[in-house]
Amino acid sequence: MRHPILVSLCVAGAFALSACEQSSGNDVDRAFQDINVVDETNLNDVMLTASDPNEAVAYFQRSVGEKPDRIDLLRGLGQSLVRAKRNTEAVSIWTRVTEHKDATDEDRVDLADALIRNNEWDRAKTALDSIPPTHETFKRYRLEAMVADSKQNWTKADSFYEIAVGLTTQPASVMNNWGYSKLTRGDYPGAERLFTDAVRQDPALFTAKNNLVLARGAQRNYSLPVLPVSQTERAQLLYTLGLSAIKQGDTAIGEGLLRDAVETHPQHFEDAVRSLRALETKVAG
Q1: Burial letters for 74-100: b for 16+ Cβ neighbours within 10 Å, e otherwise?
Q2: What is the mean predicted confidence (pLDDT) over 186-206?
Q3: Whole-angstrom distance between the N-terminal and C-terminal Cα of the chain?
Q4: How far apart are CA 190 and CA 81, in angstroms?
Q5: Does residue 145 contact residue 173 with C-beta atoms inside 8 Å?
Q6: For 8-65, how does the pLDDT look when each residue is reduced to its tens digit (9 = 90+)?
Q7: Please, where are the H alpha helices in the chain?
């Protein structure tokens, strides 16, 4: 009479063991899935920051092809396309991101950024207008300022630039943009102040240095300001200042600045030499 009990106990034990093995197997599978997610996340980050932009595009295109509903992969593809300067494609992908059920206001900011890069200013304004005013970020206001600039709405542009500067710890690039806005309006002293501030914030930002020289040249101030520059940079700034002087009609001063640029440059300065020869030919003719 004991055998059926023994058999049933063994069967029960077998089922229990089988259930344990299945549970253990599921746990292992989940653990491997977690590891794969972590590895994939790390790889995505690496592709976005360290790889060649076009390689990153190819990677995210493959990933999106396999998992088309993953918004993080779509974002990665959009960011990679922007880095690769493939702006038309970037607009298409960021549009797709903003249509995703999990899209955020920041995604709409990124769409506006891609549209601006693709010279689609009206669509960029529409994208920015769709974002609630409570979404206050540096990138959003920098783009708002650029759109206002494109519409020559200087009051709005100044307001947005000022807000953007207050929302970042690294304002040099936006100060440079703001200064260039002032330069295009003919506010040369205002532009000079902003370019000076930009260089103070980031002494390595050569674009701001060059723009600063342009602003001074527009005021017929042809002396180089005190700046942290290499010998090559100094030669390039003298060249910019020389061209500015010539444009203003101060030909003799411009010629002297071009000669200084040629002599200052540590190597052969082809652009300055060519400009100097053209000027000498014009004067001789």
Answers
A1: bbbbbbbbbbbebbebbbbbbbbbbee
A2: 98
A3: 127
A4: 35
A5: no
A6: 434 444 444 444 445 445 554 444 344 344 456 677 888 887 668 999 999 999 999 9
A7: 2-49, 53-66, 71-83, 87-98, 105-117, 121-129, 138-150, 154-166, 172-185, 188-201, 206-218, 231-247, 251-264, 270-284
